[in-house]
Automatic annotation (TrEMBL):
This is Phospholipase A-2-activating protein. Pfam families: PFU, PUL, WD40. Residues 469-491 are annotated as: Disordered. GO terms for molecular function: ubiquitin binding. PANTHER family: PHOSPHOLIPASE A-2-ACTIVATING PROTEIN (PTHR19849:SF0). GO terms for biological process: proteasome-mediated ubiquitin-dependent protein catabolic process; ubiquitin recycling. Gene3D superfamilies: Leucine-rich Repeat Variant (1.25.10.10), PFU (PLAA family ubiquitin binding), C-terminal domain (3.10.20.870), YVTN repeat-like/Quinoprotein amine dehydrogenase (2.130.10.10). Keywords: Cytoplasm, Nucleus, Repeat, WD repeat. SMART domains: WD40 (SM00320). Belongs to the WD repeat PLAP family. Coiled coil: none annotated. Transmembrane segments: none annotated. It is found in: Cytoplasm; Nucleus.
Length: 771
């Protein structure tokens, strides 16, 4: 049977984050579930439009799934049922959104809910490796638990013959009797099985991260395999009456199938998370851009010409962006950093990971249970004529600098519009090289770039975040191992990027945004920390948890940047972190310094201790905690980005982290700076991810509350980085413009001539240009 032409019919906007699930109800209404923690009911209006009539709220985390439970004995009008990453299930009155049921039992995110064939039966699946069968008519009854999968259960349905089918990340499908007894385990997919749907009274379909779709008999025989998607297949839905089915996935496509034949419709979104077929033959999608789209084969319901033209242009732009290649790999086909949360299978296994506009290679180290960054995958996309591409950006030069005999050279990118001294200092900071190399590196750039004129090198550079001047070697020959330390330049605060004594407004000034590197807090007085730890050690109590002087000295040494340490000392530090909150702040301070070391970072933020430690740090941010604990907990989280283990754990906890940050009130200026530094690091990590709208919300929220100028500056850099790089640029623009206080201040600060506000002025100007 030929597949008819489908076109866009309707666009439903209302959710502020990814739409993770779409479903249908009676009367061809649409249900949607989103990471914005809501579900919505959309009612048909006119020939092709839909209007949002009810918004369902109540979950503490994002809503991952939704379904319509038909009328039953306990609820004659039926229920809208949602599952959430808060591990719970809620049931709502369809018309007014009032919560009718609240089901608890799963120990991890609920990622699938579906009605059973019998009245009042609800099915759920969870990342806790189980599926549950609930009898809504008898809430006192314990659910039947389907237990046997070795990984998350992504989907559950009841087949036409009354058998339950579950799909799992362990690559299998299991069939179960109604009493929970296992009937059969179906193998065939080579990666996580994400979705299931009824194909006919005798068969069902499955879709998988292996980019395939399989047709199975209800007895478990594989009848056929369908290929067409180029990446993970997230969702599948069928219309048994027509014999057609539809699928969607990470390749940004909706694919319509008739037998083994299929056609693809490209959406202007990175990921199409969910799909549902309406009774009239239309198809509904939910995607990573927070938009629900309806497609139809009926010309009467086609969208108007302007809408179709805009849609086609958006799709064209998305396709062009997805064709960008680095190292021969399409960026759109590579996973983001979240894939590093999963352990490797074998020692030495490598993964290519999309990090913004660059691709990095990681290897699994079984001994430490961590992914180790091996380096960048160099780009193959042709740069502008006369330019060289490095880490997704174009430069006039990319030098190879030999630092150590036998070690591979380090890449040093440089543009002629940059100050060579600023570029040299950034290079030294990034690679943690001795400061005495500064002059040599700067002169190397000047010589090899053949610069005609060079800005003055003395008293030239101020870090845009710390405000501290750079180190300048003495006029004598470079100091040897026993020579004197370089001296700190003096004089007024300099421009953070040009190195000149006064700020300029030339068109050549280096943009403050987007920012592309993590920042951290390095300054410390280790002697003061040592003395305070010794003082508090005597107050621990009965002596059972007291530390010896030698142990305290070893713990403090962990705060040295290049320390050599015994892993047992890190264990002692973890023990010291159990001190009462009243005397905890010096322990947090030394922890903040210690996690800058990659090996210590890996031990602190390992998969055993790390998640609970991050949760503990977040509890220390509550308003009833001591101000020093609040400040230093945030600084620990900022410095966690110094190594991959800490970075991944903070990113995995970002939802609760952002919730906590949004509740911060009446904090000190230093804590404001720390908070905005943390949001800046998150912005660098997530600026090109589709799910960064909640981060933008937090940045805007805090920018409207903080009073410290340095904190405000860092917040502007975070906001500008998101605005410049995010696929959600239009949404972020709207948030800025509709925040009257922030928008007015941006316009006011963009024209200020006050020297101390100049970097805020420059950043404000750059943000306004992006609006």
């Amino acid at each position: 049977m030929a597949i008819p032409e489908y076109k866009l019919s309707s666009v439903l906007c209302g959710h502020s984050m990814d739409v993770r699930c779409v479903a249908t109800t009676k009367e061809s209404c649409i249900l949607s579930a989103s990471r914005d923690r809501t579900a919505r009911l959309w009612h048909p209006e006119g020939t092709k439009d839909f209007v949002n009539v009810v918004t369902y709220k109540g979950h503490d985390n994002f809503v991952s799934c939704v379904c319509w439970l038909p009328p039953c004995e306990a609820f004659p009008e039926g229920l809208v049922v949602t599952g959430s990453n808060d591990n719970t299930i809620l049931g709502y009155n369809l018309q007014d959104g009032a919560i009718q049921i609240h089901l608890k039992g799963h120990n991890n995110a609920v990622c699938s809910v579906a009605p059973g064939n019998d009245s009042g039966i609800l099915l759920s699946a969870s990342w806790d490796n189980t599926s549950r069968i609930w009898n809504i008519n008898s809430p006192q009854m314990s659910p039947v638990v389907l237990k046997g999968h070795q990984a998350a259960v992504w989907c559950v349905i009841e087949l036409s013959n009354g058998v339950y089918a579950t799909a799992s990340a362990d690559k299998t499908i299991k069939l179960w009797r109604k009493d929970g007894a296992l009937i059969n385990t179906l193998s065939g997919h080579t990666d996580c099985v994400r979705g299931l749907t009824i194909a006919s009274s005798e068969s069902f379909l499955s879709c998988s991260n292996d980019a395939s779709i399989k047709l199975w008999s209800n007895k478990g025989d594989c009848i056929n395999t369908y290929y067409g998607h180029s990446n993970y297949v997230y969702g599948i839905s069928s219309n048994p009456e027509s014999g057609m089915f539809a699928s969607c996935g990470e390749d940004g496509a909706l694919r319509l199938w008739s037998g083994t034949e299929s056609i693809a419709l490209r959406l202007p979104a990175h990921s199409v998370w969910s799909i549902a077929c309406l009774n009239n033959g239309d198809v509904v999608t939910g995607s990573s851009d927070g938009i629900i789209r309806v497609f139809t084969k009926d010309p009467v319901r086609f969208a108007d010409e302007t809408t179709l033209k805009n849609y086609e242009e958006d799709c064209k732009k998305m396709i062009e962006a997805s064709q960008q290649e680095i190292g021969g790999f399409k960026l759109s086909e590579l996973p983001g950093p979240e894939v590093l949360l999963e352990p490797g299978r074998t020692d030495g296994q490598t993964k290519l990971v999309r990090r913004g506009a660059s691709v990095k290679c990681y290897a699994w180290r079984a001994a430490g249970g961590t992914w180790e960054e091996l380096g960048d995958v160099m780009g193959s996309t042709p740069p502008t004529q006369g330019k060289t591409m490095y880490q997704g950006q174009e430069y006039d030069f990319v030098f190879s600098v030999d630092i150590k005999d036998g070690a591979p050279p380090i890449k040093l990118p440089f543009n002629k519009t940059e100050d060579p001294w600023v570029a040299a200092q950034a290079f030294i900071h990034k690679h943690e090289l001795p400061q005495v190399y500064l002059e040599q590196v700067a002169n190397f750039i000047i010589t090899n770039a053949k610069l005609d004129s060079v800005p003055a090198s003395s008293n030239g550079y101020a870090d845009p975040f710390t405000g501290e001047s750079r180190y300048v070697p003495s006029s004598a020959s470079p100091a040897g191992p026993t020579g004197g330390l370089p001296t700190v330049s003096s004089g007024p605060l300099k421009d953070p990027f040009t190195g000149e004594g006064a700020y300029t407004t030339s068109s050549n000034e280096k943009p403050l945004i987007p920012h592309d590197a993590y920042i951290r807090f390095d300054a410390a007085n280790l002697k003061a920390i040592h003395d305070k730890l010794k003082e508090f050690n005597s107050k621990v109590g009965d002596g059972l948890n007291a530390f010896t002087d030698e142990q305290i000295e070893n713990i403090v040494k962990l705060g040295e940047m290049d320390c050599t340490f015994n892993p047992e000392t890190v264990t002692l530090l973890k023990k010291m972190l159990e001190w009462p909150k009243e005397i905890l702040f010096p322990v947090l301070d030394v922890t903040r310094l210690a996690v800058r070391n990659k090996d210590i970072n890996t031990q602190i933020f390992d998969t055993t201790y790390g998640p609970n430690f991050v949760k503990y740090l977040l509890t220390l941010l509550s308003p009833d905690n001591l101000s020093p604990n609040q400040l230093l907990s945030i600084r620990v989280l900022v410095n966690a980005f110094s190594a991959l283990s800490g970075e991944m754990l903070v990113l995995s906890a970002r939802e609760r982290l952002l919730e906590t940050m949004n509740m911060l009130t009446n904090i000190s200026n230093n804590a404001q700076i720390a908070a905005m530094s943390l949001l800046l690091n998150l912005s660098v990590a997530l600026c090109q991810q589709p799910d960064n709208i909640d981060l933008a919300d937090s940045v805007v929220n805090l920018l409207n509350k903080i009073t410290d100028n340095e904190a405000y500056f860092r917040g502007l850099v975070a906001l500008g980085t998101l605005l410049a790089e995010s696929p959600n640029k239009l949404i972020i623009q709207t948030k800025i413009v509709t925040s009257n206080n922030l928008h007015n201040r941006l316009k006011r600060d963009s024209s200020t001539e006050i020297p101390n506000f100049k970097k805020i002025s420059i950043c404000s100007q750059q943000i306004l240009r992006l609006l």
